[in-house]
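Tip: read the tokens left to right.
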């Protein structure tokens, strides 16, 4: 148990306002707690207090902090704290600089923390293995020449490296562990962190501005403002809420709050896309739903947009983790690409649409989300099964696909059954065959295990699985899919789904050019301070013509 009771940390003279003020927290052993907050909230100082190493000029002026029965801020415990707490600073790779080899970097960290304890290469290899690095040859490589993801994992291994006689740390504190990483590399590091947690089974505290990292990795999230924890809540993972479709929150690169600005929108007459300026709407208010949600892929009245967003946004205090407010109306069979750089809030917007972000008094979802005119609740758990099926998030997870041992036939039949429980087995089989043809997978793949498919086939199968739920709207996280093998065939299948099933497609990607012809219009978000997402409609000019020009 990690406990902080009325912990106050400030200047020695007490002249300035304390950095931490009457902070209270209780974290059960083995849990992962993310502490999110903006610059100056006190996250790093909290990390220093937990490891018993406050910087000069700061001291505990009141309250207590305990790791079990151990007080890291007690004077006699300063040297002992290194054995109890593993620490990764915001400059994650700082201790790797100057080391000739990975072996030297790990050995110097162990020697500094545990003077006089003997260790060998097996100890160093064990530290690397906790972060998924199983090649002993890595010990002889120059850390400065390693790829970014591997170098960050080595830095994490250096932080948790311990001789066998020392046992596991009571606490691991990670200060911005994804700082400076692009999204694909950040995904690799998050997977390694999950493996580390399983390997050492200890308490982990993540100090971060990255709400997507917190949603994906943590069991609990605490919001820190002005040195106080104002709220603690449990995130809802979209994979548990999207009724069978994998939803992985993706980590942004580190940086300040995401920003949005519009470069414009282009649309074909078939896809009516309306974008208007909007202001962030604070809070979420329950309203009576307007109209029933239609059943089946084409049952809604043609006059109603398949997807309508009215000032829809996700915000935290101080714009932490905010998405730009968006207002669009997307008709059946329409396709819209929302594009922007890493960190602009695209993935958070995708999660909020499918109900994978849990609103609270700190994390707020503002505006309206309507499908076929029916107002949707913010949380997936509050939506009906039909409403959850109506909007599906399509993402691609190499890790999940490689561990999926069901056959393609079993996977798709189960998904079809959830959407159409009353149909006959032959009708289910016919729908599975239609889906395979739609995503260009041959009937010979029916009895193949998902893990044995190629990456390109796994990517198209993820789309087929989403379509098996008879959705009205597909939300496509196009960043990772656009970088995967076979992405061109995947986007071509998305275009066919729009034509044949009449599904509306909202794709969130860094670059619309990679999407091929699966979207008709584009809205851009960029960097800077958070501003409303505004757009203009340019009739009659397809994106392909604009690109050619």
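Filled-in amino acids:
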């Amino acid at each position: 148990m990690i406990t902080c009771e009325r912990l106050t940390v400030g200047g020695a003279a007490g002249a300035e306002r304390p950095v931490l003020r009457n902070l209270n927290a209780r974290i059960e052993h083995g849990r992962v707690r993310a502490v999110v907050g903006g610059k100056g909230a006190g996250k790093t100082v909290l990390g220093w207090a937990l490891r018993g190493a406050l910087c000069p000029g700061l001291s505990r002026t009141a309250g207590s902090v305990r790791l079990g029965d151990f007080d890291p801020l007690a004077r006699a415990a300063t040297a002992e704290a290194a054995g109890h707490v593993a620490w990764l600073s915001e400059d994650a790779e700082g201790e790797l600089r100057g080391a000739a080899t990975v072996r030297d970097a790990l050995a110097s960290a162990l020697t500094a923390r545990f003077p006089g304890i003997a260790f060998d290469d097996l100890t160093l290899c064990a530290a690397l293995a906790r972060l998924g690095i199983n090649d002993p040859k890595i010990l002889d490589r120059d850390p400065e020449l390693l790829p970014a993801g591997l170098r960050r994992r080595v830095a994490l291994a250096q932080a948790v490296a311990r001789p066998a006689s020392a046992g596991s740390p009571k606490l691991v504190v990670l200060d911005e562990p994804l700082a400076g990483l692009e999204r694909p590399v950040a995904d690799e590091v998050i997977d390694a962190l999950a493996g580390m947690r399983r390997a050492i089974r200890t308490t982990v505290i993540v100090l971060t501005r990255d709400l997507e990292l917190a949603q994906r990795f943590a069991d609990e999230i605490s919001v820190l403002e002005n040195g106080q924890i104002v709220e603690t809540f449990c995130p809802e993972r979209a994979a548990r809420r999207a009724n069978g479709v994998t939803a992985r929150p993706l980590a942004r690169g580190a940086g300040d709050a995401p920003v949005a600005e519009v470069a414009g929108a282009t649309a074909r007459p078939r896809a009516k896309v309306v974008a208007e300026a909007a202001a962030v709407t604070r809070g979420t208010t329950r309203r009576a739903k307007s109209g029933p949600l239609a059943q089946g892929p084409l049952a809604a009245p043609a006059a109603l947009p398949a997807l309508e967003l009215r000032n829809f946004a996700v915000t935290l205090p101080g714009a932490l983790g905010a998405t730009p407010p968006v207002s669009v109306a997307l008709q059946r069979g329409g396709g819209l690409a929302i594009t922007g750089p890493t960190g602009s809030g695209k993935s958070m917007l995708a999660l909020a649409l499918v109900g994978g972000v849990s609103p609270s008094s700190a994390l707020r979802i503002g505006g309206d989300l309507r499908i076929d005119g029916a107002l949707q609740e913010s949380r997936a758990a509050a939506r009906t099964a039909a409403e959850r099926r109506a909007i599906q998030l399509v993402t691609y997870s190499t890790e999940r696909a490689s561990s999926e041992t069901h056959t393609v036939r079993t996977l798709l039949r189960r998904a079809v059954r959830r959407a159409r429980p009353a149909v006959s087995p032959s009708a289910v089989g016919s729908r599975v065959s239609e889906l395979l043809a739609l995503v260009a997978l041959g009937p010979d793949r029916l009895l193949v295990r998902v893990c044995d498919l190629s990456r390109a086939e796994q990517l198209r199968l993820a789309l087929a699985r989403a379509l098996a739920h008879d959705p009205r709207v597909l939300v496509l996280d196009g960043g990772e899919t656009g970088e995967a093998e076979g992405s061109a065939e995947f986007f071509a299948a998305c275009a066919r789904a729009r034509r044949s099933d009449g599904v509306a497609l909202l794709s969130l990607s860094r670059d619309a050019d990679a999407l091929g012809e699966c979207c008709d219009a584009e809205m851009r978000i960029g960097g800077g301070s958070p501003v409303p997402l505004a757009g203009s409609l340019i009739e009659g000019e397809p994106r392909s013509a604009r690109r050619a020009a």
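Residues 237-301, 527-549 have pLDDT under 50 and may be disordered. The chain has 17 helices and 20 strands.
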